[in-house]
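Hi support team,

I'm opening this ticket because the web form for multi-chain structure prediction keeps timing out on my end. I have pasted the exact lines I submitted so you can reproduce it. The total is 875 residues across two entries, so I didn't expect it to be a heavy job. Is there a limit I'm missing, or should I split the entries? Thanks in advance, R.K.
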Amino acid sequence: MATGIKDKVAIIGMGCSQFGERWDVGAEELMTEAFNEALGDAGISREDLGAAWLGSALDDVNIGNSALPLAFGLRLPRIPVSRVENMCATGTEALRAASYAVASGAVDIAVAVGVEKLKDTGYGGLPLRTKGFFNDLWMPYGSAPGGFAQLAGAYRARYGVSKDELKRAMAHVSWKSHQNGARNEKAHLRKAVDIDTILNAPMISDPLGLFDCCGVSDGAACAIVTTPEIAATLGKNNPVVVKSIQISASNGWESSADGWDGSYVVNTREAAKRAYAEAGVKNPEQEISLAEVHDCFSVTELVTMEDLGLSKDGGAVKDILDGKFDADGKIPVQIDGGLKCFGHPVGATGLRMVYEMYLQLQGRAGNRQRDNVRLGLTHNLGGSPSNSVSAVGLFGLLD
Amino acid sequence: MNGITVAGTYLPQARIARSEIAKAHAWAISALKGKSRGQRSAAAWDEDAITMAVESSRALLSSGVDIDQCVFASTSHPYIDRSSATIAATALGLADDVITSDAATSRRAATSALIQALRSDSNTLLLSGEKRIAKPGSWAEIVWGDAGAAVLVSNASPQAQCLGWHSRNEDCPDFYTATGFHPYQGEERWIKEQLLSGIATPTIRKAIEKAGVNAADITWAVLPDPSPGCEKALAKELGLNATLLTQEIVANAGDLGSSHPLFGLALALERAKVGDTILVASFGNGCDALIFKVESLATHASADAQLQGGSAGSYMPFINSRGLFDIDCGPRAERVDKTALSVHARYQRDITSFTGGKISESGAVQFPKSPTALDNAAATPAQYIDVCLASEQASVVSYTADYLTYTPQPPFCFGLVQFKNGARVAMEYVDVPSEGLEVGDQLEMRFRIKHIDRERGYRHYFWKAAPVKSNNGEQN
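Hello R.K., no limit was hit. The queue was backed up. Here is the completed structure from your submission:
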């Protein structure tokens, strides 16, 4: 009987590079920036590492396949290194692998690094990708905003929400992230934007306007994990620990069978259910202190509030407009600016979210620190709502 | 003897007002103003001779006739050496032992093939489609139209019997299009006064004589009109009292090339009463003429509604989608659309005919088939019962109009489509109204080009979903 990894993995060091349009550096420099911060934070040397995982989602953009970009980039001491990829859940996937290695006793200390270098493609948005020789014969080439925009009409149809009302709630989501991002010195976008600007922005994928979409960024984030026992020997007696990391992947039901109405994300609900069970969370709306969710697009954050149980089904529009998820709300969501404004270097994003939880749980989040942070949630959503990989992580203190 | 069992037509959604084309070129070619009456039909970027011909013939298959051969006539075949008839036959779900052949390089291609089909003892699906590319500012650009038309020729309950025909070959081109060049036309008065009188008139007279009817008694006539006034002049020379259909077609859609006589025949069959006679003639390096007698009322109607339907299109997207005005679509247009031929070969019949499957009569329908079935992990592909989705009723599950994805005619509309039989497929939407689509809107399938490999010229065909009745209110 599986016992899970709750409280079996301690995070003893984290780092996060400056996110943004990093014309000045390449992927190696970004990884080094995040890794050096994490190494210093952990108070260990690279020789103490037993294994490493590299998360990068878009292997053909500057980083490359295999372990070598990480092993070369950080000059790792010939330890086992693996590259993992799971679309936008890639960073969380790297941390999951490192956590499992530690929890299993296979290694004492492991490192997870997520990185993406997107701004050398020559255009905005994600790089163009084939869906594979066979799928290209029939599957539409939709963009990422196109895939997520599908949620909007389906959500409106299910709950009888008008176009204007949904658009206003979506605009509030983006407004909030800009407010938060403006206070975060590592964020990509640091300018507050007013609601009218958001509502009147050029259309990208109906009904998502420019400000409903996160940009893409360059960046890296890193976590060093070990057991609570080893953490204690390093002087970290009440470390941040992993309460759960769960992933759920579509099997084709949403996109191929008659059943799903398109207004929510099946895998987020599934991953959340398992994560709450592993972590012992009974009432997420009451127990979760703050959340970093996959706000690739404003409408994604909106439905994710319901998928995670932070809003009742059909209640997200009102909760958002009431400020429940604002920085001073009941459950701040994207207090660091989120994908929308901190940035979205795909392979790094999951680890960037954990970085914020790590800081908040230790009271180190500076001008955006919240009081009484007990349990932080991170959430990634890769692919599109109908064909997705969703990851939910829960992080708290050992005691 | 074989006759016309049923006929069908297709016009693309967009109509470009000829006045708009003339206006675009007025700074240089003021003479176009004289040709600016009416409108021309304009295929979308993802339509070509094959897709339009397929659309024109889909309704014909419900006649229940066992088709022996499929003949495709066009002067704008997308490929020189990849059979249009074979692609069309596959899209239509015809059996793999149906003989497929292509007629080309003649504006008489469809009528010549029709004569042969009528003379044979085979059940023939004769399709034609035209998307001819003409130089901006040319007479052809403004006068021509894009279309598909098809007839099913068999001895099964023919709606019309052929009373007689005549064909004449004369290498006296009134215009020509050399390979790699744009169309070039001779002097209009010479065409009207010399060529038509010298070639078309005697050929048609001979056909009328062979049919044993009086010219003055013919009810409907589809005559060639290669330059203004030819139709009327021919009718006068021949002594016809028939209703002339060509100018009506030209005014609303254009000269439809090799598809024109079939489109006109379908239109006449829709309007005809039992006992009416129809003259169909085509012209170009000779002349074909056929006389039909209507024996029963049409069981399928599409041409009239299509001629009256459509929606206004714009000139700039029109020339851009035909590769005549190559706007800068940015780096996202640099996407590589190369098709892996071996992968296409593996799945082509299911992809081109939009065939999914289920593993039992009560099983869930899925597209595409997969090694592990949606509702039965133990099933293998060989166990699938084929289910064609092309004619299934469907509705919108989700929708967006995406302005980020490159497409020659933005926006790129796509979403999840729910079929009534339970299948669900992520699809592109076409012919979407400006207000977009809503969840639950009813859809029907259209055979289209999915993508074109611009470096190699390869075009890959698949199906897209369109709002019901988008095609000009066609009645099926």
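A quick check on our side: Chain A has a mean pLDDT of 96. Let us know if the file doesn't open in your viewer.
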